[in-house]
Amino acid sequence: MVGYTLGGGLPLLGRKYGFASDHVIAFDLVTPDGELRRVDAVSEPRLFSLLRGGKGNYGVVTAMEFALFPAAELYAGGLFYEGAHAREVLAGFRSWTQDLPSEASASLAFLRLPDLEDVPAFLRNKFVMHLRFAWQGSAEEGTALLAPMRAAAPVLVDAVGPLPYERIDEIHADPQHPVPVREGGMLLKGFGPGLEEALLQLAGPESQAPLLLTEIRLMGGALSAPPNAAGPDCVGGRDAGLSFFAVGVMVPPIDHLVAAAIEAARSALVPYATGGSLVNLHGHLASPELAAGAWPEALRQAMGEAKTELDPKNLFRHGHAVLPSTPGAAAA
Asked: Counting Cβ atoms within 10 Å, is residue 70 exposed (0-12), middle (13-18) or buried (19+)?
C-alpha cells in the first residue's frame, strides 16, 4: 500500500475518486536523519506535497491515514471475447469510452494465457480479449452502460454482475499467488488516429509478442482533476486519456524475450504518448530517462532541491530515485 500510494496510486474506481494519494490525510515518516515526523498539509506542507507522487525519495513511511468512501456494492466484472474478434472489440471500446460517465471505470486487455492449472480451463493456451468494468451504482444502470460492449462482438464468457467490494480482485482475475513477471507502461493521450492499428500490431491475433498481458485503461474523470484542497503534489498523468501496461512472464522459453518486447511496445507507442508517465507504471527501470519521465522538468528540479536538503547523502537512491541537485552527491 505504501509504495503504491507514494507513486500516486491508480485505484479501480479512480475515474470516480481520483488517485489514492489525493485522499491521504497524513503520513508517519522516518526521514534520512532518523527523525520520525507526522506529515500533513498543515504541519509539513512541503513534505506532504513531495510524498504524494514523489515515491520513496524522502524517507520510510511507517503509517498512512486516509479519507474513506462508502463501499457500496458494485456492478462489475469482466467480459471475455475470442481473440479473433480483437479488432471489433477494440473499435467498440474506443467508441464506447467516448461518452462513458466518470463513475464507470474500464480497461481492455489482450491476454495470451498459458496452459497451466491455475488458468480456468476455457482460457488455457488461448488468446482472448478481456474487458474489465466497474460501476458503483445499480445493476440496472450498469447493465445499460455495458450493453454496447456486450454487443461489440460475440462474448465468450460474461462474468459481470453485482459484486461486493471485497471481491474486486475478481474483476481483473489476476493470479492469487506470486508470479515472476517483468512489466512496464506509459501514458497515452487517447484514441488518436492510428492507435488501434498500432495496438493490434503489438498484441493482436497476428502478433508474436511474448507478453501475457497488454492493457489499455481509460483515464480521465477525477484522475484528470487538479490535486485536492491539501495542495499541490507530485503525481503525473492527470493529462492522460489512456494508460498502457504490458506484462510478460519470466519463465523459459520466453523469459529472454520479454524485456525487449516491452521496450519495443513503448517505442511503438511514442507517437501517441503524453510525454509523461506514472512512476508506478515503470516496472523495471530500463533507463534513467524512463525514471525521469515520471515528473516534468520543473517539478523534478524542485524534488532534487528538496532531496538535497532532506537526503544530502542520497541514502534513498534505489529504484525510482530523484538525485539531489547538489553536485557530487552519492551515486547509486
From this structure: exposed
Edge to edge, what strands does the sheet with 127-135 contain?
155-163, 74-82, 127-135, 104-112, 213-218, 242-249, 181-188
Residue in 281, 298, 75 with CA at minimum distance from that of residue 185: 281
| Structural domain boundaries enclosing 104 | 74-281
Grid cell 462474468 — which residue?
A: 159
**Whether 129 contacts 110, CB under 8 Å:** yes
Residue bearing cell 477494440: 90
* Residue 127 within a domain: yes
C-beta of residue 282 within 8 angstroms of C-beta of residue 184: yes
With a pLDDT cut of 70, the percent of the chain lying above it is 95
Is residue 53 domain-shared with residue 78, that is, in the same domain? Answer: no
Q: Is residue 329 very low, low, confident or very high in pLDDT (cuts 50, 70, 90)?
A: very low
Buried/exposed 143-169: b ≥16 CB within 10 Å, e otherwise: eebbeebeebbebbeebbeebebeebe
Same domain? 64 vs 79: no
**Cα 126 to Cα 101: distance, rounded to the nearest angstrom:** 32
Look at residue 231 and tell me if it is in a domain.
yes
Average pLDDT of the residues of the chain: 90
Residue 188, number of CB atoms within 10 A of its CB: 23
Residue 108: count of CB within 10 angstroms of its CB: 27
Tell me the CA distances in angstroms from 142 to 97, 105, 139, 146, 322, one per residue in order: 14, 11, 5, 6, 43
Number of structural domains found in the chain: 2
pTM score, whole prediction: 0.91
Q: What mean pLDDT is predicted for residues 169-176? A: 87
- Both 136 and 81 in one domain: the answer is yes
Are 25 and 101 contained in the same domain? no
- Residue 293 reports pLDDT greater than 90: no
CATH of the domain at 90: 3.40.462.20
Whether pLDDT at 73 is above 90: no
